[in-house]
Amino acid sequence: MGRSPCCEKEGLKKGPWTPEEDQKLLSYIEQQGHGCWRSLPAKAGLQRCGKSCRLRWTNYLRPDIKRGKFSLQEEQTIIQLHALLGNRWSAIATHLPKRTDNEIKNYWNTHLKKRLAKMGIDPVTHKPRSDVPGAPGGGAEAGAQHAKAAAHLSHTAQWESARLEAEARLAREAKLRALAAAAASASNSSTSAQYLPHPAAAHGLDSPTSTLSFADGGAALASVLEAHGAAVRAAMQQPMQAYEEACKDQSHHWSNEVDAADASFAGAGFTGLLLDVSLNHNTTRQAGSIDAEPEDAKAHETEEEKNYWNSILNLVNSSASPAAVPEHEEYSPAPEF
DNA sequence: AACGGTCGCAACCGCACCACA
DNA sequence: CTGTGGTGCGGTTGCGACCGT
Questions:
Q1: A67 found inside a domain
Q2: What segments bear the compositional bias annotation Basic and acidic residues (predicted)?
Q3: Which nucleotides of strand B are protein-proximal, with an atom < 7 A from a CB?
Q4: How many domains are there within chain A?
Q5: Strand partners, A312
Q6: Residue with CA nearest B9 C1'?
Q7: Residue at A192 is within a domain
Q8: In A 265-304, which Cβ lie closer than 7 Å to strand B?
């Protein structure tokens, strides 16, 4: 149906922002809050369209944005989440505190995608490419094993994806409730609260561009679960049930196809499966002398990684009532790692 | 030093979704 | 129900920085 432009193109500045423009936007938002983006430029004295202002604020000027080099753990998280979610940068950003979706997207496109391709891993499917010499899974036996692991990973990814969807849903709901509560006490709102994206940001639930985050590895989610337990459980049941339906058709096939991978899954869990990929990734990087890191640092990050995923999986699992958890073994609570 | 190619990042574009009148 | 405005999101582009010759 087509839409009118977000603003009159005539007379509006485009391109890089100057420090003066940044200062104008920053000081205006700090004093007034952004309010309606479309009307903001005129009020703030900027020759920009509202959309440009919003992007500049969201991706660059906000005080709660971390800039600079991505840590190894952040890289791993991006790769793992990309394997699960694809190019859903905002969803990925929710799991990387203080990183914007734009930054993650850029980092993926300019660094990680190329690195995976160099390793012989298809950055789209996250599966080894057989046409690359020396790629993982090159041999017949290794290939079969990898196929099983990949099949299981895909299987598990569906489950995890459903969970992430539910997390997003419940966080949105929590946000709406919080906004309603904030509206009730709007008369005494402070300026700092005005430019925060939503009240949940006050307890670390915020991500620079998204409505959902687990900045402290799941504690924020825990608080949401605590506050809205019944609604959360109801929300959680939907994707779980949907996935259960899908599994009814597939479970036999899966159980035959991926039993070897399941064995490893039982021992190492989903995190372990992913970490296995990540550790191979690290090994390759070291072999290629790219950002080589000491072994103990790597082990430390691995432990953190396990804890990170454990906290998410356990929190989500604990939120679902026992009756809501399907009996299929794949839905059993996250294994202890 | 000059030039051309490549890389990385900020910013833009356009579509999709949602809320609301 | 439909049209419109506001915003979110992912893809793409433009340009400066960097690097090799």
A1: no
A2: 295-305
A3: 7-16
A4: 2
A5: none
A6: A106
A7: no
A8: none
